[in-house]
Amino acid sequence: MYKVTLRSLASVFALVLLLSCENEYSEVGIDFINSLEVPPPYELENIVAYSEKYTSIQTNGFNDYFLGGYVDPVFGITETKILTQVSLSQTRPDFGENPTIDSVVFTLPFFSREIESGIYELDSIYGEGSFKINIYESNQFLRDIDPGENGEFEENQIYYSDQENEFSPNIENMPLVTSDVIKPSDLTSSVILFEKIESDAVDTLNLSPRIRIQMPIQYFQEKILAPANSQFLVSNNVFRNYLRGFLIEAEQQQPVYSMSMFNLGNADANITIYYTNETQVEEEDGTTTTDTLFSQYALNFSGNKLNLYDNNFNVDLSNQNIEEGEENIYLKGGEGSSAVIELFTGPDTDGNGVSDELDQLRENRWLINEANLNLYLNEEVAPSSKNRINRVFLINLDDRRVLEDYGRDPTANDNPNISRQVHLGPLNIDENGDRFYKIRLTSHISNVLNNDSTNVRLGLYVSSNVNQTNLVNTRNSQSEAFESVPRSMLETPRGIVIHGNKSAVEAKKLKLKIFYTETN
Predict the structure, then answer these.
(1) How far is the C-alpha of 61 from the C-alpha of 80, rounded, in Å?
(2) Nearest Cα to 52, choosing from 285, 324, 246, 335?
(3) Which residues pair with 250 in a beta bridge?
(4) Which residues contact 25 (CB under 8 A, 6 or more apart)?
């Protein structure tokens, strides 16, 4: 009883004390907060930013490839072709006796999603134009392993976007087939197919939108089903040297262009041979009837495949000012361009390899609360909605890896459209209606200022998938820093123009804003 009473009295006393101090506590708190002097952000203007054009980028080793043409109001026309090997879906196939091809169908499904029954929304379609598809037999052998300068045979073979002229002597001049006119943006309804599975039975298929082209029957009858060629079907290594692949070309129906991305790793992306076998069956009454067996066999787009680019790049980036920077930054996907951003580039009077400004900031020992790069679109140079891309990508250009802020981003998730939004802010609109990207570099800047991390160059790229961090090789680059680019740069043909550090528009000039707390 005594213990309960004592605890109750203590509780009442604490409650009375809290109530009696409530007003005083609130007033002191408000006065304390209002007395804080939050310094304005430090704006770093000693920045150099310029653009780098690529003419040769690795395009093999993936599944997603562009086909068609894209017209950019600033950067010009990009046209792409696909060169691909084909593989046997089953080695040593048994086609039975006297197989006869009924049809051969080339299929490329679009990226799409069903929004209502039988109606689809297409993805990765650029432009409202149309094209015909030409398919050529390729005699270009695409090897898997690079023999190396001294016959090491240790690295995978790399193929590049600018190798069409090198390969063209080994591509047949006349196409095997030319399709009807195809307008991808109109193909939003499901494809209904009727496949014969028996003489008196038909299978009805409702499929997502796709390109389907009837291939020449005689070619595949002789090339695949002829018994004399069965020796070439024993393995895919043998087969890929026998039938070396196809070049797929989109012949634009000008003046409006169209480009689409296709996943050649999709199980439905293939060349399917539909064939029959007829056998004579003797019935019990002595009569003979013909039994027809319906079968199919697929050639898949596996093995080596690559994009070949024909790029009419309209922007001259040959004389970029790498010492002082540029008025505009030009970023384009595909066989396009990226930007170099160098921070803390001011004078270095003591010759220690670090700018005087960076030396001073390091001595301040600030606690870095936030650091942002605001990248404003230059919509006077590029006013078209085509030149508005939702995401950009940033890497440590010297070490060719993502920044620490990328790994620390709490918004990381499997959906690239909403992933990494703290570090790589999506295209946004400020209070004046101007479009910009906010790139947060808090951890990176904190490390540079307080942890003696190297002040590395940064590489900026357009991206359609910020979760894709793999790098691919380039050729003909002016320094080692440009010998690779993010794979995601190849997943969009579009481009943007950003105000650089020399922009005449002060409010949109490229700057780094550092929000800090003084620790002294």
Answers:
(1) 17
(2) 335
(3) 133
(4) none
Contacts of 139 (CB under 8 A, 6+ apart): 170, 171, 172, 244
Mean pLDDT of 129-152: 93
- Helix or strand (DSSP H, E) at 167: helix 164-167
CA atoms within 13 A on the CB side of 481: 16
Tens digits of residue pLDDT in 425-482: 999 999 999 999 999 999 999 999 999 899 999 999 999 999 999 999 999 776 777 8
CA distances from 308 to 16, 56, 78, 382 (A): 80, 10, 10, 27
Furthest CA-CA distance within the chain: 113
Q: Phi and psi of 100, rounded to 5°?
A: -130, 125
CA distance 334 to 311: 10
Residue 229 neighbours by CB under 8 Å, 6+ apart:
222, 223, 242
SS (H, E, C) 477-515: CCCHHHCEEEHHHHHCCCEEEEECCCCCCHHHCCEEEEE
Which residue's structure tokens are 């992306």?
A: 269
| 3-state SS string for 411-442 | CCCCCCCCCCCCCECCCEECCCCCEEEEEECH
- Residue 185 CA: distances (Å) to CA of 115, 131, 204, 228: 15, 11, 25, 44
User: Which residue type, as a one-letter code, is found at position 343?
Assistant: L
Place of tokens 């002060």: 506
pTM (two decimals): 0.89
User: For residues 40 and 83, what is the distance between their CA atoms, to the nearest angstrom?
Assistant: 56
H or E segment and range at residue 22: helix 22-35
Residue 89: burial class (beta carbons within 10 Å; 0-12, 13-18, 19+): middle
Which residue type sits at 335?
Answer: E
- Compute the distance between CA of residue 341 and CA of residue 331 in angstroms, rounded to an integer: 12
Hey, what are 462's tokens? 């357009």
d(CA 46, CA 6): 68
Q: What is the pLDDT of residues 293-339, one digit of tens each?
A: 999 999 999 999 999 999 999 999 999 999 999 999 999 999 999 99
- Give the CB-side neighbour count of residue 460, counting CA atoms within 13 A: 26
